[in-house]
Structure formats: structure tokens, C-alpha cells
Amino acid sequence: MQVKETDLPGIGRKFILETKEKGRVIVIVHDNGTREMYVPDPKDPDERLSVGTFTDDEARKLAGIIGGMAYKPKALENIDIEIDDLVIEWHRIDPASSWIGKTIGELKVRQLTGVSVIAVVEKEKKNIVPGPDYKFVSDSVLVVAGERQHIKLFKELLAAK
After folding, report:
1. Which helix H or strand E contains 13, and what residues bound it?
2. Could you tell me if residue 72 is inside a domain?
3. What was the pLDDT predicted at 134?
């Protein structure tokens, strides 16, 4: 996706997002925190159709939905979200993983990689901010956060058998 940014003095900033499929969305972030979203009119590309105006809270909820924070399609094994230098990724524990039955503390996940496990989603339950005594189980999905270089170390640790 290509993103073009333009300052709007006294108003805020305009973002034009163009997808690989040539779809376009225009978002204006106002200095007061509101956001406006537009799509070009298919009949007249110079005209814009308003999708809506969103408060800061509404915009964050919409971003969470679009970004996969509210629902993660089951077909996706790994996805990631990047906010400045912070990366959030989802990783499934392989049934043959050496991590199964071990705790976060035993594996020294944060100490060895710099990554925090912020949630673990199992078939029957969700563990938000699991502590060092959490034991990993097969096929659970880990939600981890860290900087890109830390995520790389985490992936290496997770892949080690």
C-alpha cells in the first residue's frame, strides 16, 4: 500500500492510501482528534464520497478492527502490526515445539529476546498478560510485542527444538 501525506496547516494532515488493486481511501486527521474518511466517486475521481467523521475513540476502534485486533481470521497463522518501532505479532505454538509444558519464566522469553508475551489464545480460553508461570500448550497462539530486532530473536528461540 502506498501512503501519501500532506500537511493541512491549521487543520491537520491528509493521508491518501492506495492499495495494490488501485483502491483509494483518503483520511484527514484533524488537530482536534477527529478523523474524516473519504473514497473517490467511481463516476468522477475528483469528487469524494464521505464514509464518515470519527472521534478519536471511534477511529481507534475502527483501526483495531481493520488491523485485526478485534478478530483474527483463522486462516492467518502469523500477522503483524507495526506502530513506530513497536511490532505486535501472532505466532502459533507448533505441536512438536520444545516449548510445550514449559513456562514463560523457564524459557526466559523476555530476558533472552526483549519480547513481551502480551496474550496467549488457547482453544478454550484467552490469557491476557500471562505471568512467568504460564505453561505453553500445543496449538495456542502467542501475541507478542517488541522491536523488530527483538521479534527476530523471539522467532529464532521459538523455532529452536
Report:
1. strand 12-18
2. no
3. 94
